[in-house]
Write a structure and sequence with these properties.
Shape: elongated
Helix content: over 70%
Strand content: under 5%
Distance between the termini: 31 Å
Number of helices: 3
Largest sheet: none
Radius of gyration: 18 Å
């Protein structure tokens, strides 16, 4: 995940959390609807400013699992 996608996700998460607190949402259905609404708004903002939609961003060459495995192998080999 690059900076652009990371920032969009963080913004979506923080705004959803704030809205849930502000509106004192306590049930799961309302929380899910709130999340959906905020996500839709964030995606619309990305689209409106001409940003790249998350699904259109390039994917990394290696998965997190691959990177973790490589790091563990390097640590093992150092010992």
């Amino acid at each position: 995940m690059g900076n652009e996608e990371l920032a969009a996700n963080l913004f979506r998460i923080t705004q959803t959390e704030a809205k849930l607190k502000r509106e004192n949402v306590r049930n799961k259905e309302k929380a899910n609807q709130t999340h959906y609404t905020v996500c839709k708004t964030v995606r619309k903002a990305i689209e409106d400013i001409g940003g790249t939609m998350p699904e259109d961003l390039p994917t990394p060459e290696k998965s997190i699992k691959q990177v973790e495995k490589e790091q563990l192998e390097r640590l093992k080999n150092k010992k």
